[in-house]
Write a structure and sequence with these properties.
This protein is mostly beta strands. It is about 10% helix and about 45% strand. The strands form two sheets. Strands 1, 2, 3, 4, 5, 6 and 7 form a seven-stranded mixed β-sheet that branches. A two-stranded antiparallel sheet has the order 8-9. Strand 5 and strand 6 (about 75-80) form a beta hairpin. It starts with a strand and ends in a 14-residue tail after the last strand.
Length: about 120
């Protein structure tokens, strides 16, 4: 499934729309380098990424805010796509926005609650 999301450099900054493939097998989201540069988003690191065929590639990554309809903008690591790279919305971004994929319905929906492992009750 594909979704259209907004990307910005700050929560209330200029936003550009981009259509991304929802990929729960991808950790980070990947957006066009030119779009990220236009928004003033700069590389902060290089990430090693494993492709579906097992190859490992390196790409630059930076920080952006993603805007999903009906949700407040959320911070995300975005990978700078090179020519030929798929543009994806990864699971790290989905979960950061409080969203999950419902594979039976083929939709994205809000989490009813974010997962958290609580410590066992006991003496402090």
């Amino acid at each position: 499934m594909h979704v259209t999301v907004g990307i910005s450099a700050t929560p209330d900054g200029a936003t550009r729309q981009v259509r991304l493939l929802v990929d729960t097998g991808a950790f980070y989201s990947m957006a066009p380098r030119a779009l990220l540069a236009e928004l003033g988003i700069t590389p902060a690191s290089r990430q090693k990424l494993r492709l579906a065929d097992g190859r490992i590639v390196e790409r630059e990554a930076g920080y952006a805010f993603l805007h999903y309809p009906g949700r407040p903008p959320g911070p995300a690591v975005v990978v700078f796509a090179e020519p030929g790279d798929a543009l994806v919305l990864g699971v790290h971004t989905l979960e950061g926005l409080g969203l999950l994929v419902d594979p039976q319905a083929g939709t994205i929906r809000e989490m009813d609650a974010a997962p958290l492992i609580a410590a066992a009750p006991g003496p402090a």
